[in-house]
Amino acid sequence: MTMKGSKLARLLLLVVALEILLFAGSDAIWPPRTRRRYWCRRSRPSYPRWNNNWRQDFNVECRNSYSIYVWQSKYRDCWGDRIHHFDCKYGPFYYQLSHCSTPYYVNDFDRPLTFRCPHNGFITGVASTYSFGAKDRRFGFRCCHKHGYIAHSCRHTFKMNTWHQSLRYVVPYGYYLVGAYSQHHDSKQDRTWKFEICQFSRSPYYG
User: Fold this and answer.
1) 37 by DSSP, 3-state: which?
2) Which of 19, 97, 117, 129 is most enclosed, with most CB atoms within 10 A?
């Protein structure tokens, strides 16, 4: 074999090897569509115990005299939605069901959400419904109160998540969740959240 033929043979071998590497690499980085769909279907984490699946409605209520103190959610781009998890702790006072409101949706799809419990109440439940068309959620809140107790020393949190990022908010000791505020971004198909928390005490004017 001539020198020229030897160089040509090595060049052909190099081209073939490069094509093999590129093909294998592209398959590893960009899996087939069916594989991506399978990953998306099975991508809900096993912990914590989520209160909904992707694009499913939910209605979470604390048991008597408890208040929501953990609000957690995780976004998945392939679903354009969040899964949610809530935990409850003992509230600032004992209450009965007659002291609680029925959840109703307080925002429209693709619109801001502004909510604060009336009557010096605190949040004891969260309900939500999903829209496939809007790729957004409406939210409703169950609030409970008791005559003679007032909310005070209230404060607002900073924005607790960015677009498409996980959210986990734990209400500080001695405070209780009383409000929620959210903005929706149409192109990102997601929401950011802020919260309002208060302390509670018995009113000195209550006989």
Assistant:
1) helix
2) 117
